[in-house]
């Protein structure tokens, strides 16, 4: 048996940041557990630039961004076990893991940070009919093949999904000599950054077809082509008569990411059905005392800079818990996604222990131009507006933030009787709607 | 001459119409902020990109080393750079930031490693 103060599961950007932040907060006996051969997580395969613009004020590639945190971990002598798979985390913070060198490991921790990241949705998740040939792979898998392992997955490629990974891979495969025939997007807009649409598709003349999807996959051994069709934007159903055959030897899927929470579920941690990640409070504490979470395991981010920030919060909170273990205070505010909003993280705020400033992260459910964002607190006495902000543009593909100051929240709370339920709602009310009720 | 562009400054993605006369941008319309004008001028007169790709590496954990140009290079030089880098093989160990190719194809940019790779036994 081994014992640590803090065990961090996953050495990607969230886990690395959590470990460093916990160390800086005074906890020295830390173990990072990583299933891959090296730390860094998915950043190692993201060889393109665009990382760190907010955190470092610099334009870095994925491996460069990761290297900065790997160095911080190494400088502090934080222990790391590579090639190690965590099999189970128990509610009383035992970690069962396995690797070739140690065999089965049983590790006791005073606190745990979950930083397992997310995984890609596959063909099975979106139910594409047809045969089951080789050559149908997720965009992230292709990215690892091309950028790390040295394999080109195909020469004639169709990409389904216009999220950033799909767009980045369209450019990457083109640069490596493959012909990317088209990118199909089920929705009438892309969830990817405009910069990527311009620099990854338009630079190379790759067509982006909105309101289109793949309705059949063809081929026995290897994929030989796909049938694509236009969809009705209202129902998302293929329009009869619009089907056409497109030949290809590879279909890349970039159809969304899901937080990876098998371990969280096993540990009995409450999950949010919308984010598919743990329900967390303002300190990234999960519903199980002493277990914290940060990064893509909580909700899927667009920018690694925000993953780092969340990992740091989780690490600091874990350190605070290790040095002074006590349950969260009873006074709590639930956050709620109102009109036009898909989800809000954190789902819970503990005003008595919150930091001076709290960042609410949320996504809108449609494209909003020149619309007002409203954050309001509902108490036993009614609604109080905490803040409104007019935003030039909000799109579902770009995570939105709203900063809440502790003093403003307490001012809105007033002499609140803590027995009445408190709710902080983020919404984009329709024009003219009275939200001051 | 008119050119139609989409601004990449923010998710707004303003559709820009740029007037280019005698090698100069004389008018930009469609933008709602300063970024649009700056982008239009750079994109019409001297479009550049940071190239990120890989080169072959021997005796390392993986067969590829990730690299980038030390600064953005002219867009029309990217293809030639890729062709050139096809012929490059380095040997581990390599340190992050190490220059792999100096002044690649006289662009003024170096090709640098974006990752440290240790020598494997």
Explain this structure.
The complex is a heterodimer of chains A (437) and B (121). Chain A has 437 residues and is of the alpha/beta class. Chain A folds into three domains: 2-119 and 258-327, FAD/NAD(P)-binding domain (3-Layer(bba) Sandwich), CATH 3.50.50; 122-255, FAD/NAD(P)-binding domain (3-Layer(bba) Sandwich), CATH 3.50.50.60; 341-427, Immunoglobulin-like (Sandwich), CATH 2.60.40. Helix content of chain A is 22%, strand content 34%. Chain A is built from nine helices and 27 strands. In chain A, strands 1, 2, 5, 6, 7, 8 and 19 form a seven-stranded mixed sheet that branches. In chain A, strands 10-17-11-12-13 form a five-stranded parallel sheet. Chain A has a five-stranded mixed sheet with strand order 22-20-27-24-25. In chain A, a hairpin with a 3-residue loop joins strand 7 and strand 8. In chain A, helix 1 (13-24) packs parallel to helix 2, helix 4 runs parallel beside helix 5 (164-175) and helix 5 (164-175) runs parallel beside helix 6. The mean pLDDT of chain A is 94. Chain B is elongated, with a radius of gyration of 19 Å. The termini of chain B are far apart. Chain B is α+β, with helices and mostly antiparallel strands. Helices cover 17% and strands 36% of the residues of chain B. Chain B is built from two helices and ten strands. Chain B has helices spanning 34-45, 78-86, and strands spanning 2-6, 15-21, 24-29, 48-49, 52-58, 64-69, 73-74, 89-91, 99-101, 111-113. Chain B has two domains: 2-46, no CATH class; 52-113, Roll (CPE0013-like fold).
Task: Describe what is shown at a glance.
With 437 residues, chain A is of the alpha/beta class. Chain A has nine helices and 27 strands.
Task: Write down the CATH topology of the largest domain in chain B.
Answer: CPE0013-like fold
Tally of distinct domains of chain A = 3
Architecture per CATH nomenclature, i.e. the level-2 architecture of the largest domain in chain A: 3-Layer(bba) Sandwich
**Secondary-structure element sequence of chain B?**
EEEHEEEEHEEE
Fraction of residues in H or I helices of chain B: 10-25%
- What is the CATH superfamily classification of the largest domain in chain B? CPE0013-like
* Multimeric organization: heterodimer
